[in-house]
Specification:
Length: 258
């Protein structure tokens, strides 16, 4: 069962309203999250749900910003590439200040989890503690295009199961934040995860999300403890067909693209 981690704040933390970018003024400070519970959920299920990472104001602002073409480096119409139906836009550098900060501050507590996974899988490479150092590694390898994006789906749209791999350097976790409200803004359009396991049938999980909720999930291989030791599972993610309305999602990918 997916762990749902309730929104909480520490009194000593700065208010999200102090964040410099108004688009993400309603973001919950990542340092206030229960990262021990997130780690446990990711290790057990490959996904953790954070309730209310963004408030409604932030979600509405991001949806409205989708049509501000100056913020983005490219637009992808999914049907043209066999990815499904719908479209998405990648943000351009420099990212909006609040978005860059959210990406950076989500990376920091996820890096130790990613390193534990590499260690368990016998992968020698390790991830630096700071996101800037990891991005420098990506950029040195020719992965210099930003990957945070907003996806937009309409009636009948869907996203095929896939992995977000953009080059040699891959951070094994990413974040998707639902910006629309199920049952009000759209119907259908469930977030779907699958895990391909060696010599076993694939496992499927539908992850329930409300507006502002974030799913933190495995991108490309994670360790799973079995009766004979640790084995690797191969995850993919997608979105089921929308029955009506419009659905928007913010995606935070921590590696950059070639």
């Amino acid at each position: 069962m997916t762990a749902c981690l309730e929104r909480r704040r520490a009194a000593s933390l700065p208010s999200p309203l102090d964040w410099p970018d108004p688009v993400l003024a309603g973001a919950l400070a990542p340092a206030s999250l229960d990262w021990a519970a997130i780690r446990d959920a990711l290790n057990a299920h490959g996904v953790a749900v954070v309730k209310g990472l963004l408030d409604r104001r932030a979600c509405d602002a991001l949806i409205a910003a989708y049509d501000d073409e100056a913020r983005y480096r490219s637009r992808v119409v999914m049907a043209r590439h066999g990815f499904g139906r719908g479209e998405y836009r990648y943000f351009a550098y420099p990212l909006p200040d609040g978005l860059a900060r959210l990406r950076r501050e989500m990376y920091a507590p996820l890096a130790p989890i990613a390193n534990d996974w590499h260690r368990a899988l016998g992968i020698e490479s390790r991830f630096p503690a700071e996101h800037e150092a990891f991005l420098a590694r990506c950029h040195a390898a020719g992965q210099s295009r930003p990957t945070p994006l907003i996806l937009r789906y309409g009636d009948g749209d869907y996203n095929c199961l896939h992995q977000d791999l953009y080059g040699e350097h891959v951070f094994p976790l990413q974040v998707a934040v639902l910006l629309s409200q199920p049952g009000e803004d759209f119907t259908g359009g469930e977030f779907v995860l699958t895990e391909q396991r060696p010599r076993m049938q694939s496992r499927v999980e539908v992850v329930p999300l409300a507006r502002g909720d974030a799913a933190i999930f495995a991108v490309h291989g994670r360790p799973q403890q079995g009766v004979r030791g640790v084995y690797r599972v191969n995850p993919r993610h997608g979105v089921s067909r929308l029955r009506s309305g419009h659905r928007h999602t913010l995606g935070l990918i921590f590696h950059d693209a070639e």
